Amino acid sequence: MVRPRIGQGVVVDVPATTANIGPGFDCLGAALDLNNRFELRVIEGGGERFDLIIQGSEGSHLRGGPDNLVYRSAQRVWREAGEEPVALEARVQLAVPPARGLGSSATAIVAGLMGANALVGEPLSQEKLLELAIDIEGHPDNVVPSLVGGLCMTARAASHRWRVLRCEWNPSVKAVVAIPAIRLSTSEARRAMPRSIPIPDAVLNLGALTLLLQGLRSGNGDLIADGLHDRIHEPYRWGLIQGGRAVREAALEAGAWGCVISGAGPTLLALAGPSVAEAVSDAMVKAWEAEGVPSSGAVLDIQTNGSRWEPLPSRTQ
Which residue, 39, 165, 263, 268, has most beta carbons within 10 Å? Predict the structure, then answer.
């Protein structure tokens, strides 16, 4: 391990994620080709100093200080490694809007963990970083693909270990996201769910998840369409998303195989073939506009590399 010096820094690129993907509540997620970029640099000051500079139209409400999620994640690494905390400055190029269901908090956690680990010589393994990320986030479906990339199924095994399976995503399957100019916190979305669900609903989800994974692997749109059905979380969350049901119908009419809530929402995710993906995106944006909600759409591929870091040129503070 090495003690980071004043002016030393790293840049961490972290992908957005879409989680749940219909029936995969709290266990299935995929990294998307849309990145937040975090420049972390050691500055003068004590172990409670964290300066945050946001570059982008979103995130003006985010603040620095010791309670910031990036810094709290960094401190977890230093505690595990037996290192004293250092003051940090973070310059963030924010492409993933906060509180939209695209894993913004996961990017902050992963950036803090990976950046802090890199600054002290990477004493912690990727497996340990995954464990810390899941512990901080509380569930694995966003942070795991954000860290390792691709489509990931994550489960806590009988041995109490977290097991991560990289699943195949056929490149012919396009992820179409429609991002509204409204926010929905994960905590609010979770409060809308019941504390227990009927057994038939759980059984339906298990079957749907099997169909979905096979459809994503093969690119079979019929399997994807039958697999994008959920009775665990979506029935209780659609009412929280203004105009969401109308946007879903517009996506299906434009040729999407299915349309689901991305993460906790309010962003919606449609899966479609390449020949109709742009039309699906346009239809979703127009449907939200008709509901009085500004939005933006994008056709994205799956990001398979996960998060990456590289050193920043040193400077004297």
Answer: 268
Q: What is the dihedral of CA 177, 178, 182, 186, to 10 degrees?
A: -30
- Residue-wise DSSP of 31-47: EEEEEEEEEEEEESS-T
pTM over 0.90: yes
Query: E strands along 44-133, which residues?
Result: 50-55, 87-93
Cβ distance 17 to 147 under 8 Å?
no
* CA dist list (Å): 151 to 20, 114, 147, 238: 11, 20, 11, 24
Helix (H, G, I), strand (E, B) or coil at 78: helix
Q: What is the mean pLDDT of residues 244-256?
A: 98
Alpha-carbon distance 155 to 134, whole Å?
11
What's the pLDDT tens digit per position in 152-185? Answer: 999 988 888 899 999 999 999 999 999 999 988 8
Q: Which residue has the tokens 């200080």?
A: 65
